[in-house]
Each structure stands twice: as structure tokens, then as C-alpha cells.
Amino acid sequence: MFHRLNHRGPHLALLALVWALLCLPNLGGPSLWDIDEGNNATAGYEMYRSGNLVLPTFNSKLREDKPALLYWLQIAAYRTFGTNEFSARLPSALAALLALLATYELGRQMFGKRAGLLAGLVLATAVAFSGAAHFANPDALLTAFNVLTLLVFWHDYRRNATGWLALTGVTTGLAVLAKGPVGLVMPTAITHLFLLWRRQWLNVLDRRLTWASLLFAIVALPWYVMVTLETKGEWLLLFWQKHHAARMTTPLENHGGPPYYYLLVLIGGLAPWSIFFGVAGWHAWRHLSRPPEGKGEGARPAVQFLLCWMAVYLVFFSIVRTKLPNYVLPIYPAVALLLGFFLDRWRRGLVEVPGWVVRLSMGCLAALGVSVFVGLLVAGGAIEASFMRGRYLPGVEAWAGLGCVLLVGAGVGWWCAWRGRRGGVIAAVAVAGVLFTGALGALVVEVVDRYKAPRPLAQALPADQLYRDVRIGAYAWFRPSVVFYCQREVTKLAEEREALEMLEGPLPAYLFMPASTWLALEGKVGGRGREVARHRDLYSGCEIVLVSNE
How far is CA 61 from each of CA 38, 67, 231, 485, rounded to the nearest angstrom? Predict the structure, then answer.
């Protein structure tokens, strides 16, 4: 498979092709996913509409959740491709491509070109990474700049300080503009831990860090200073207190979890390659525990570096009380590199693995396929399950056969292992990963999207609602993406009295609410309200109606 792809150009082209197949088809098809996509896409649109590139807002109110880089990139996409879902998600997709190419280059420098190519394929087809590439939030950007920072560090380290280290100021500055202090703190902790493990702690005081600090300040600080001045410190205070300090000490919105939470997230998000996670970890430990062969240390420093990368993220975010799967997305390139290192050496016969381990791995892939098959049947209602509480998604069961892709991949992999064709095993999993992850991201989500209410309800608004004095509100139900699709402020009503006043007022009004709420409210408005449209809401599991007094 890899004999004719033995140069950087073909490798990069192959990874770009895989990225295009997995990320671009139907990127803008599904409506925005709430809560994050609705918030981010709307904030970018409001910044675009207002022309104020400093102050982020959502629903015409200050939004202190995230810095501005994602919004700026979305604005560029809105100007080029229009205000739509594709534009909102394009920055994440392009950031995923950048992360893939940087991961390949890092693997090439650490372990060789074939290991780098395998690492890129593992990362591209991992379901969590592919999902992030389809999602309008800053995590893919943070991951890309994180990999670039560590690539620049490693390039400088292995060449004994050639001056490249100063560029980490640019990459960490962009990361801080994408997600906040974590873009600087985590790469710094990784590199410092690595240097301490290597007993090269004096390198921590490298004078080139002065240049890196200067470049960081030039890239990151101007916007933070401007938004702080424009909001009289309010944005910065809320950004730190609510979205950093509070998340560290409190499981916000009940997003908590046990200490092993992120280990489970990592294994699940790495699918289908998680079947090799255990043996790749064993291989990394074995590589560290054995003395290197020949002169030099071989790949030992690289393995140490990747383990530091993983450890910093896993330990830090396991301590943080608020836990969400996307917090450890930047760890996937490190895991992909360790997997690429193992798979390349195993393929070339440089490391031996008991036959039962390979067969067990293929069995796990088959079990994953069966789980997907049954899970989609349950989700679609073809198989009844009490834990679903009646909240089925009819139509999803039609894609249950997607699990068969993994089953076939497991069967082909098992046959190749039996025939001693190790490259065939890897190819079988890679092809299954491309087909499975690609279909999941482009096709299955379309079925789920039918059950999201904001876009179809907003499409029922009159075409001229943006050009006349119309009031739009939401009572007892709200989704951030409603604001994006209405393209104007949506008033959130807290009390029944406010809803009645809006419908009984002199201005044209449109109000989103649960159907059960409208049933109780209808008799109180004296015939001033009528139902315009209704749609089932995926998240609340109930019917939502759009009501108007026109």
C-alpha cells in the first residue's frame, strides 16, 4: 500500500484527499447543533453584521465565552460563501486539515515518513477528530495550533537550537486567540515536563523565549487589550471567572465525571483505531524500558515527548471539575503518532505481537460494528428499549448497515492477519475507517437533523420580517441557533404575562414555545394568536410551535 507513496508530496496529497472525502461532503447540510454551534455561528454573524471586530455578542448581548479568532474566520467565510452552516463550519474543517498535515510532519521527523503517514490516517479517521472538523467551535483551531507549536519545538529541539523556537510565540498567540490561556499553558507544560524528564531543565531558560514572548504579545495581546478597554474590563472578568475558574472548581451544567472519564472518551473517540490502543501503549512502554539498539537513543526522546503530551492533558482535565469530551481533542494527534509508530514497526516486522492480540483487536472491531448496528436499530425504534423513553428517531435504523462496514473490515483484517499480511490488516482498518467515519458525518447526521426544530420553524417566518418592525420571542423554550436563523434578536420571555403582552400588543409578533404551553395559553389571548408552524425538537423531545398575532 505504501511502497509507491514514499515521499512527502504524495503523502500530503493522500492525507488532503482523505480529509476532503471525510470533511467536505455535506459540511453545510445539517442545521446548527445547539448549544455551541448556535452560539458561535451567531456571534460570528453579529460581529460581521455590526462591523465591530473587537466586541463579541450573542443575541445583541455581550458574549464572554470565547475569544475572537473563530468569529473572524467565520466572517471571512460569510463574506465569501454567504451566511450559512457551511461558512460557520469551514474554519474548523480547514483547521483539521492543518492539524493533519502538521501531525504527519511531526511523525515524519520523529519516526519516519511511513509512520507519519499512518499517524495522519489514524487521526483523520478517528470519529472524535472528524466530528470536530464538522463542528463550529474553537477546538479544531486549538488542536491545530497546539500541534504546530509542538512541531516547531520538536524541530528546534532535534536540531539543537536553530532559532525556530521563536515561532512558538506566533502559534501559541493564535491558540490563545482561539480558546484562551489553555493555548499557551498546555504546550508550555508539555515542553517543560519533557525537558525535565530529559534532565535538560536549563533549556527552559533559553534566551530565544524572549523573542517567542515578544511575538506572542504582538499576536495575542492587542485584541485582549481592546476588548478589555471597550467593555471596561467586564469581558475579561467574566471570561476568567465564569469560563475558567468556575469550570475548574464546579461541574457546570452537570458536566462532571469520574477520574477515568477522559480515558473512556479517548478510547471511544479514537474508534476504529482504539482496537490498537492497548498494544500501542504496551509498545511505547517497552520502547522506553529497553536500552536503545546501536548508537544514540533512537525514538526514545520522541516517545517520551508524546507521553508528556498525553499526560499533561489527561491529568489536568481530569482534575478540572467540569468535563466535556472536546476538552482533550488536542491529545488525539499524540495518540495517533504513537499508533503510527507502532503500526509502522509492526508492519515492517521490527516488533512482534502475539497472534491472539491481533485476533482480539479484530474481534473488538467486529464487536464495535455489531454495537453500531444494534445501536442504530434502537435509536430508530426498530428495537424498543426502555432507556430511550420513547424518544426514537425514525429513519436512523435505515443506516444500521453502517455497522457492517466495520464487520467487513474486521473480517478482511482477520484474514490478512491469518495470511501474515500485516499491511493488509492496517489497510483493512483504514478503509473501514474512511467509509464508516465518512458516512457517519455526511449521511447519518442528515437523518438526525430532521428532528431539530430551529431551522424549519424560522423558515416559517414571513420573508420580510427583517425589513419591518416585527417582534420575535421565545417562551419556555430557547435554542441559540434560533437567533442565527432569525438573523435578528430573539427576546427570551421568562413569564406567561410577557408572552401574553407580546401577542396582544400592537406590533406583529412571532413567538416560539412548546406545543403544550401554547395549548394552555391559547384561550387567554382572545383569538389574537394562531399557530404558524410546528416541529419536533430533538433536544427536549417535544413539539415546538411558532405562534403569531398576524
Answer: 15, 15, 12, 17
312 secondary structure, DSSP code: H
Nearest to 267 by CA among 331, 206, 216: 331
Q: 402 with 372: CB under 8 angstroms?
A: yes
Secondary element (H or E) of residue 63: none
159 CB neighbour count, 10 Å cutoff? 11
Name the residue among 478, 75, 68 with its Cα closest to residue 235.
Answer: 68
67 close to 489: Cβ distance less than 8 angstroms: no
Share of the chain above pLDDT 90, in %: 72
CA–CA dist 320, 181 (Å, integer): 15
* DSSP, res 441: I
Distance in Å from the first CA to the final CA of the chain: 65
Q: Is 135 helix (H, G, I), strand (E, B) or coil?
A: coil
Q: What is the pTM of this model?
A: 0.93
**How far is Cα 457 from Cα 461, in angstroms, rounded to an integer?**
7
CA distance 451 to 536: 6
Distance CA 395, CA 381 (A): 9
**528 alpha-carbon distance from chain centroid:** 45
Q: Closest by alpha carbon to 122, among 137, 94, 103, 141?
A: 103
Element (H, E) at 509: strand 509-514
Residues 6+ apart with CB under 8 A from 530: 547, 548, 549
136-179, pLDDT tens digit by residue?
999 999 999 999 999 999 998 888 766 778 899 999 999 999 99
Cα–Cα distance, 137 to 156 (Å, whole number): 31
Q: Which helix (H) or strand (E) holds 492?
A: strand 491-493
Which residues fall within 8 angstroms of residue 489, CB to CB, at 6 or more apart? 59, 60, 472, 483
**Cell numbers that stand for 271 in this block:** 474508534
Contact yes or no for 298/284 (Cβ under 8 A)? no
The three grid cell numbers given for residue 517, joined into one nine-digit string: 404551553
Q: Closest Cα to residue 123, out of 105, 137, 109?
A: 105
Beta 543-548 vs 530-536: how paired, if at all? Answer: antiparallel
CA distance 376 to 380: 6
pLDDT tens digits, 202-212 = 666 666 678 88
Report yes or no: 497 and 534 within 8 Å, Cβ to Cβ: no
- Cell numbers at residue 143, please? 488542536
**Phi, psi for 332 (deg, rounded to 5):** -65, -40
